[in-house]
Amino acid sequence: MDGAARILRRYTAASILIAVFLLIVNYIILGTFVFKGINEGAPPVQVTQTVAEGLYKNGSHYTLEPDAEEWLQKSQAWAMLIANNGKVIWDYAIPDQLPRTYSLAEVAQFSRNYLQDYPVFVWEHEMGLVVVGYPKDSLAKYQIHFPISWISDLPYRLLALLFGNILLAALLSLFIGSRLIRAIRPLISGIHALSEDQHTHLEAKGMFSGIARSINHASSLLQEKNALLKARDEARSNWIAGISHDIRTPLSMVLGYASELEESDVVPYEQQQKASIIRKQGEKLRSLVSDLNLVSMLEYEMQPIHTKPIRLSTLARQIVTDFLNNDLAESFTIELDVTTEQCFVMGDEKLLVRAITNLVQNSIVHNPSGCHIHVQTTLSPNQRNALLIVTDNGKGVEQAMLPDLVELPYSSKRKSPSHNGHGLGLPMVARIAAAHHGHLLLTSDTGKGMTAELCFPLSS
Amino acid sequence: MEEWKQKKVLIVEDELEIRNMIDGFLRKEGFSRIFHAGSCKEALGICVSDKPDVAILDVMLPDGDGFGLLTSIRRFSQIPVIFLSARGEDEDRLLGLGLGADDYIVKPFLPRELVLRLLVILRRVYAPPQIDRLPVFQLGDSTIDLEAAIVTRDHHEYALTAKEHALLRKLYENRGRIVTSDALCQSVWGDDYYGYENTLMVHMRRIREKIEPCPSTPEYLLTVRGLGYKLLVKEEL
Fold first, then answer.
1. Please, which pLDDT band fits residue B237 given cuts at 50, 70 and 90?
2. DSSP per position, A192-205
3. Contacts from B160-166 at CB under 8 Å and sequence distance 24+?
């Protein structure tokens, strides 16, 4: 299933992208949000340095520069200067409980940690050691040590972390995606079935049960519509069959009596001629009714087709012979050209005869002043189809009109209404060809004659 | 021909006008013993009481269809039957003929067609056997006796072989018309033309040698190129 694979691919790619994006966003947030406040106020080390540098010996006194003092006040810190002998020789806002002398061990200890819970920072001074203390519980002091090898490996570790993240994201999305696809796959095949107008029924369960139910509903709706359409087609076809039936009985009488009058000796010649016209028109009506019935049956796929292997050349010989035997006017010549006898099609003989006869008849009807008609049976250039080609050298049809000729008269597909004849002939031939899995191809232009090519699949 | 006109004809048709029209045609052609029925029931009654010689049945009747009627008639009578139907569908035609009807005519029809088909059926069913003799006919100086399968020309007798006879008979039945090579092969060898082209040509040449004064320029047995052959018969005995 190509659709499912594509969805999975896209889903995984999107997941990885999202993971990378999240990672980047997290780093940015870490920098701007989490570490915000870590350096709130002046950094203690800097304050200590400022104090150390701003402390001058002034005679026997020490003076702190005002800006250093301001810093201390701002940080609510205290400060002292311990001389090299361990005595406090200068102090500022020092808490009372702190001792005034410090041993070397004490100095070493508080410089690393706390002095009586006061976080303290030290800076060297020409007279000793400047100690700045912050209020209790205001700062946390940590001593961190890293092995050098660890530090140098850090970039690789971070890189590995990044790729590990991406891999994890890919695997997770693949896992979740494939589960999703497994759930979607029946839906996809259901929708494909819908688009091919097949009946489909999906099991409605899982997270997509609602969609499955919708697809089932759409499918049953389509089936109902199809059944309805078929019923309507059938009704239409039956209706036309009924009408043709009803026309036939009165037409029998018109034809019967007209032909009786035409042959009667007691009727004057002029009236005989009129009766003859009535009969001929009646016969036209008869062929129209039967064409209409056949076209309607073919159009609604209700015409029973009795196929058997038919040798196209035999059929063509029979049809051409029938035209020649039935008093073809002198002005018409008809010629048969059989290029191969090995031209079999699976077909309904009566329908094929009707189609081919109709093509030849067309050439005769549309060229009243006569023409040469050439009937050819042959194989298509690729040897896969049997062709029956009827060509005349008559007046032809304007090229733009050709597509209209095979559409039913008055149908919306037809651009202009039919001008001569009832226009059912070629649509009927085209439909007979279609019913045999073949097609009708017309080529013509004004003054260039007409070529009608019937193409059928060869029967093995 | 006249003896056929004495046969009793039954017309079963629910449309009175059609019935009258057919009646008119038949009377004009010389038939006089004509019975009418408008329904299956009436028709069966007439079949029992008057024993018609041939029946023309409409397929659609008020109390059933013609096919059912034919089945009922066949229980006690073997009279020839022509179906006359406004339904031209192949299925109906096949059903009718399958039930043993002798012909099936689709409305609208020309009266001449109906009468001709009726006569053909009457002749076929009621003709005395001796009528079946094959004809003797003249082609220029040649006399062809199909019954004896002998051609007589210039006081010579030429016997026709079985195949030649069959071919000539088929051509004679369609005299003046082109008979396709396929139809000839079908009637003589029961097979398609394909594969018999040369055989057919050879047989035609032999027939020409027997019937034509000058076989290379035939006057009576003509080749219609690409289609078949045509037998021109100018006079009949």
1. very low
2. HHHHTT--------
3. B160/B207, B160/B210, B161/B206, B163/B188, B163/B203, B164/B203, B164/B206, B164/B207, B164/B210
Stated pTM of the model:
0.64
Indicate the pLDDT class of residue A390, thresholds 50, 70 and 90. very high
Question: For residues A167 and B226, what is the distance between their CA atoms, to the nearest angstrom?
Answer: 80
Work out the minimum CA distance from B184 to partner chain A, whole angstroms.
Answer: 11
- Contacts of B63 by beta carbon, 8 Å cutoff, 6+ apart: B39, B40, B41
Check B194 against A342: CB less than 8 A apart: yes
CATH number of B136-236: 1.10.10.10
Residue from A248, A252, A266 to probe the interface with B (highest B Cβ count within 10 Å)? A252
Cβ within 8 Å, pair B228-A317: yes
Instruction: Report the residue from A252, A318, A337 with minimal CB separation from B107.
Output: A252
Domain ranges of chain B: 2-130, 136-236
Nearest to B227 among A249, A282, A321 (CB): A321
Asked if the C-beta of B106 comes within 8 angstroms of chain A's C-beta atoms, the answer is: yes
Q: At a CB cut-off of 8 Å and minimum separation 6, what does A153 contact?
A: none
Q: In chain B, what percentage of residues exceed pLDDT 90?
A: 14
Q: In the structure encoding, which two tokens stand for residue B95, read together?
A: 């059903």
Band (pLDDT 50/70/90 cuts) for residue A417 is low
The answer to whether B148 and B165 are in contact (CB under 8 A) is no
B90–chain A Cβ distance below 8 A for any pair = yes
CB within 8 Å of chain A, chain B residues 115-174: none
Q: Which CATH architecture group holds B2-130?
A: 3-Layer(aba) Sandwich (3.40)
What burial letters (b/e) apply to A168-192, b meaning 16+ CB within 10 Å?
ebbeebbeebeebbebbebbbbbbe
**Long-range contacts made by residues B208-214, C-beta under 8 angstroms, separation at least 24?**
B210/B142, B210/B151, B210/B153, B210/B158, B210/B160, B210/B164, B211/B139, B211/B142, B211/B144, B211/B151, B211/B153, B211/B168, B212/B142, B213/B140, B213/B141, B213/B142, B213/B153
